[in-house]
Automatic annotation (TrEMBL):
This is Cysteine hydrolase. It comes from the Bacteria. Residues 4-175 form the Isochorismatase-like domain. SUPFAM superfamilies: Isochorismatase-like hydrolases (SSF52499).
Length: 185
């Protein structure tokens, strides 16, 4: 039987500045729920090489970023302290939109026997959508925590959650997920 993991994605200062202030407490609640239930947590963060030598100029998202952003020395690239990884939690860096891009996330999940991904992060129209679609294509069971995801465009968030992501997996809230975890224990 496969295990479940929570993927907390792009909860970095540079991303948090683009979503409503009431978002972070919901992400913290998702993290606490996972930890309390013994669900493994994987933190996924955008990290580009200094000078963005790994960002092609034709890439509309990454080619246009100033070359100092989301590099190891950028304070805005740090995972917010309220959702910082605890000892033993996995941190994976990506260099594109999907959590699977430019790293060994799929290998880590397989080695841990994880077949169900619960997604939370910023932005719904970016990493959440991209990761959910790729994960579904890779045959993972996917659950999206609708209130632990955010997008700079709230209308886009609602459309994606209600009309697109629900077709690829389950969409639920942190509270309902927590109840389901308790019932499964």
């Amino acid at each position: 039987m496969s295990r479940t993991a929570l993927l907390l994605m792009d909860l970095q200062a540079g991303h948090l500045s683009h979503v409503p202030a009431d978002y972070l407490p919901r992400a913290v609640r998702a993290l606490r729920t996972a930890r309390a239930a013994g669900v493994p947590v994987v933190h996924v963060a955008l990290r580009l090489r200094p000078g963005h030598i790994d960002a092609h100029p034709r890439n509309k998202t990454f080619g246009a970023l100033p070359p100092h952003l989301f590099t190891p020395d950028d304070p805005g690239a740090a995972i917010h302290p309220d959702v910082a990884p605890a000892d033993g939690e996995i941190v994976v860096h990506k260099n594109r939109v999907s959590a699977f891009a430019g790293n060994n996330l799929q290998q880590i999940l397989a080695a841990q026997g994880i077949g169900h991904l619960v997604l939370a992060g910023i932005a719904t129209g970016g990493i959440v959508l991209s990761t959910a679609l790729q994960a579904a294509d890779l045959d993972y069971r996917v659950t999206v925590l609708s209130d632990a995801c955010a997008d700079p465009d709230p209308e886009l968030h609602d459309t994606l959650v209600d009309r697109i992501l629900a077709r690829r997996g389950e969409v639920t809230t942190v509270e309902a997920w927590g109840r389901a975890l308790g019932a499964a224990a």
